[in-house]
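Sample entry follows:

:::
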Amino acid sequence: MEKRSIAVAYAVPLILMAIVLASSYALGDGPAVIFRKVLFAPVFLLAIKGLRTFFPQHLDRTRSFSTQAEFQLLNALLLSAFLISVGPYESLRIIPLICAFAGMAILIAGWNLAFYWHDRGRAQD
């Protein structure tokens, strides 16, 4: 692995951890909650990377609609889980929390799928 690749491999999680730390501090979270949220940041990145092993990026252009929709939904579920875990949602009751999670996932998946098909259509022109 090149030195630059190693630096990026460490920098990206550290930057995300710093962003989570700053936002959690700004939300007024306690030290234990901040620590837990910061620890979740690299786990999220590993989960996204792991998802890509099942849906390799070099196959994005040739993937069927149903397979791409599955990838976008799984990706959106991971991002929604991360946002719910690090966001200001500790005081929500379970039903509003589930609705927020599902709403985020549907919006993110729809948004990503729309951009995917837009880009795919432009590439075929």
Observations:
- The radius of gyration is 17 Å.
- The chain has one domain: 3-124.
